[in-house]
């Protein structure tokens, strides 16, 4: 029997996904399906980490439509290292991603500043605080 501790709920429709994407990755990468031709048309995954979120941003800017299925398609196990890995090095990648998103016109300057502050507030505290913040965000 599988113990489900949380379910990541994501917006279903494109307009809601675009709004959500201004703050967090709008799809769950391990369960995503896309047309290879569409990804190749935008140049593939960008050289920025996290690259999947960068790709979704480019595709949205280029006018591709997104949708999320509301049915749970993936059960994913995470351990204690999930929180530990989301520290200063993860933050450095996210800040580069934010700069990339601003450069391609996905984020406005105010979106960029707000995300910068939020990312630092979530990534820099001790792991116990990060755990609580992740529970709130789900």
Automatic annotation (TrEMBL):
SUPFAM superfamilies documented for this protein: Nucleotide-diphospho-sugar transferases (SSF53448)
Superkingdom of the source species: Bacteria
Annotated protein name in UniProt: Uncharacterized protein
Species name: Pseudomonas lactis
């Amino acid at each position: 029997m599988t113990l489900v501790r949380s379910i990541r709920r994501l917006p279903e429709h494109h307009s809601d996904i675009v709004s959500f994407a201004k703050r967090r990755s709008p799809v769950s990468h391990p369960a995503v399906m896309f047309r290879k031709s569409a990804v190749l048309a935008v140049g593939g995954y960008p050289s920025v980490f996290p690259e999947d979120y960068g790709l979704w941003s480019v595709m949205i800017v280029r006018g591709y439509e997104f949708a999320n299925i509301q049915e749970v398609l993936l059960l994913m196990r995470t351990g204690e290292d999930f929180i530990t890995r989301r520290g200063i090095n993860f933050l450095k990648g996210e800040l580069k991603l934010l700069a990339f998103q601003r450069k391609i016109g996905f984020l406005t300057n105010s979106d960029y500043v707000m995300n910068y502050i939020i990312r630092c507030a979530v990534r820099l505290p001790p792991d116990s605080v990060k755990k609580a913040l992740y529970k709130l965000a789900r």
